[in-house]
């Protein structure tokens, strides 16, 4: 098979790694890819949002399967474009990707079908939102309705903070058009867990659990980011929690989308909060998480191509999804200053230290190949991932491996998976 992967981040590198292990694949392309993906695939200079150009490439190169890694093209309808040309593609159609593309849609869906989530209200007017906040309980959560690179959520402790938040999202357009509509949500407390699941429109098969660390600084301080690190599995995601979610979240969401005429095929990402009253859905995404994919996919025993084909063909029930009985931790190496201002073009050294070391991975995110070598090309630069027989061992291995890579403005959190030590 020839496979095309769409995207350029650590998630797409993790997908490319899994695809490269498949016995069914002999050629991988990636649009546009990065310096690390280039070691596994032929990178092509097409933007993920150039939907017709992507489809043209797939036609001209007789691509057997295209895997969409990113949210933007999914929400824009890339799957519909491919399917209209008879091209095989993995991901939800536009009318199903709205589950990530609009938080207001997903909240309304959960409310209608009794899927457990936080109480909320939706606003198209900043003035109406501020009036509502005058009598709200605090803390409270503000969410830009649309896509905001995982950063469109503000937790506000006072009315003044919330009022400023509404203005920055809806009036100052901090997150662009994503803030045209605002969801205001009750603040929930508990452990956060991410569960990714394969879907074929009818059936859903959850993968192993993971936990992300969104804030830029240790102790969950600083600004929201795309994710500073993950661990898998979560010790807080118990058998009882899984059984509850299988019935009242995962299958309920698939059934709800089908009832709405929006059959969901691809990856459903469920962000959960484990509250005192039970699991609640924080958010849905319509693709692999980043950096969740970097800890979940290396632990998957199945051939990823076989699983994806089963999803497309409506035969996911035939797949026995299995994961290794171990753990993995990913520590993101970022450029100092991320998620605000940071320098690019800084040379990275030490990649050779990962060669031949089983259970250690360096997934590229913001990197670029130049005449001088591989240089930084983004805020999140690399995801250093390691396995271990236990979470503590995996965490120790991952942090040891971060020492193998060097660039002058290297920054990372030092407490990824610290919750493991407290479990």
Describe, in plain words, how this protein is organized in 3D:
- It catalyses: 5-phospho-beta-D-ribosylamine + glycine + ATP = N(1)-(5-phospho-beta-D-ribosyl)glycinamide + ADP + phosphate + H(+).
- Its EC number is 6.3.4.13.
- This protein is of the alpha+beta class.
- Helices cover 29% and strands 28% of the residues.
- The chain is built from 13 helices and 22 strands.
- The protein has helices at 10-20, 51-60, 71-76, 78-84, 94-101, 103-112, 126-133, 159-171, 239-259, 293-296, 304-312, 391-402, 418-422, and strands spanning 2-7, 27-32, 42-43, 65-68, 89-90, 120-123, 140-144, 153-156, 182-186, 191-200, 204-212, 215-217, 221-224, 229-232, 265-275, 278-285, 327-335, 360-364, 367-370, 373-376, 380-388, 410-411.
- The strands form five sheets. Strands 10, 11, 14, 15, 16, 17, 18, 21 and 22 form a nine-stranded antiparallel β-sheet that branches. The chain has a five-stranded parallel β-sheet with strand order 3-2-1-4-5, sandwiched between helices. It has a four-stranded antiparallel β-sheet with strand order 6-9-7-8, sandwiched between helices.
- The longest helix is centred in the middle third of the chain and has 21 residues, at 239-259.
- The N and C termini lie far apart (44 Å).
């Amino acid at each position: 098979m020839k496979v095309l992967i769409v995207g350029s981040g650590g998630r797409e590198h993790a997908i490319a790694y899994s695809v490269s292990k498949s016995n069914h694949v002999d050629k991988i392309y990636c649009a546009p890819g990065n310096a690390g993906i280039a070691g596994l695939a032929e990178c092509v200079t097409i933007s993920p949002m150039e939907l017709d150009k992507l489809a043209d490439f797939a036609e001209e190169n007789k691509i057997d399967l295209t895997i969409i890694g990113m949210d933007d093209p999914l929400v824009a309808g890339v799957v519909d474009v491919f399917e209209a040309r008879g091209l095989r593609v993995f991901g939800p159609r536009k009318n199903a990707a709205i589950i990530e593309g609009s938080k207001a849609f997903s909240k309304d869906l959960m409310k209608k079908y009794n899927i457990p989530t936080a109480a909320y209200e939706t606003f198209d007017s900043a003035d109406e939102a501020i009036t509502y906040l005058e009598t709200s309980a605090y803390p409270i959560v503000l969410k830009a309705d649309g896509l905001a690179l995982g950063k469109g959520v503000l937790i506000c402790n006072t009315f003044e903070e919330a009022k400023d938040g509404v203005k920055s999202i809806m009036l100052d357009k901090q997150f662009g058009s994503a803030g045209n509509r605002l969801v205001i949500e009750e603040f929930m407390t508990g452990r956060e867990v991410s569960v990714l699941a394969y879907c074929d429109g009818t059936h859903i098969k959850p993968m192993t659990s993971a936990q992300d660390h969104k804030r830029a600084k240790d102790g969950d301080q600083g600004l929201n980011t795309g994710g500073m690190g993950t661990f898998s599995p979560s010790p807080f995601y118990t058998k009882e929690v899984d059984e509850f979610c299988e019935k009242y979240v995962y299958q309920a969401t698939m059934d709800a989308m089908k009832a709405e005429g929006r059959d969901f095929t691809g990856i459903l990402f469920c962000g959960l909060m484990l509250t005192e009253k039970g699991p609640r859905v924080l958010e849905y995404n319509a693709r692999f998480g980043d950096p969740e994919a970097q800890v979940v996919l290396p632990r998957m025993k199945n051939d990823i191509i076989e699983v994806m084909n089963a999803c497309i063909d409506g035969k996911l029930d035939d797949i026995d999804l299995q994961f290794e009985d171990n753990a993995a931790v990913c520590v993101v190496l970022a450029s100092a200053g991320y998620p605000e201002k940071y320098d690019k073009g800084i040379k990275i050294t030490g990649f050779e230290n990962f060669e031949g070391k089983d259970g250690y991975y360096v997934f590229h995110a913001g990197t670029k190949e130049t005449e001088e070598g591989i240089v930084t090309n983004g805020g999140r630069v690399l995801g250093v991932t390691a396995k271990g027989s236990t979470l503590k061992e995996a965490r120790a291995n991952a942090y040891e491996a971060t020492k193998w890579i060097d660039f002058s403005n290297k920054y990372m959190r030092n407490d990824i998976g610290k919750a493991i030590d407290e479990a």
